[in-house]
Amino acid sequence: MCLESTDMRMNRLLFRMRNLDMDAFAHDMTPGEWRLLLRICQAQEAMRVSELTEGTGLHPTVTSRILRSLEEKGLVERTLSRADRRVTLVEPTLEGSTTYRETCAHIHRFWEEVFRDIPPEDIDEMLRISEEIMDGMERVNAQRRRTREESDT
Cβ distance 65 to 74 under 8 Å? Predict the structure, then answer.
C-alpha cells in the first residue's frame, strides 16, 4: 500500500476544513463580515477605517463593501472624525457588540465540544504546530509575491 504524501494529506485536511459550515454560528454574517466585526469590537475605541483595512489586509474597496453590509445590518456605525473631517471612524453599535459577544460565546462552545475528548497538552501542541505551519505558509507566499513583483518590473 502506498503511503499518502504529506502535501496531499494537508490539502485534503484544508479542503475538509474549508467545507465545514463554520459560518453557521456567525449570526448570518459572511466570514468577511465576522472578521471585520471581530476587529472593530476588539478595539478599545472607534477606529479609523484605514486602520481596519491595513489590519485585515483587505483591499479598501472590499473593506468598504463589507462595512456597508454591516451598517445595513445595524452592527456598526461610521462617522466622520471631529478632529479631521477627512477621516472616517467605525465602531460597533449596541446590537453589533451584542452580536459579537453572542458569537464569541457560540464559537467558544463549539471548540469546547470539538476538543472535549482531546488532552489539553495535545491541543497546545496542535496549536503550536499549526502556528508554525501558518508562519511557513505566509513566508512562502510573501517570497512568491516578491518574486512575481520583481519579474513584473
Answer: no
Per-residue pLDDT of the chain (153 residues; tens, 9 = 90+): 456 788 888 888 888 877 776 655 667 888 889 989 999 999 989 999 999 998 888 899 999 999 999 999 999 999 998 888 889 999 999 999 999 999 999 889 988 998 999 999 999 999 999 999 999 989 998 999 888 888 887
Enter the DSSP assignment of 4. Answer: P
Q: Does pTM top 0.85 for this prediction?
A: no
Q: Can you tell me the distance from the alpha carbon of 153 to that of 143, in angstroms, rounded to the nearest whole number?
A: 16
| Calculated CA dihedral for residues 114, 118, 123, 126, nearest 10 degrees | -90
DSSP characters for 9-64?
A: HHHHHHHHHHTS-GGGGSTT--HHHHHHHHHHHHSSS-EEHHHHHHHHT--HHHHH
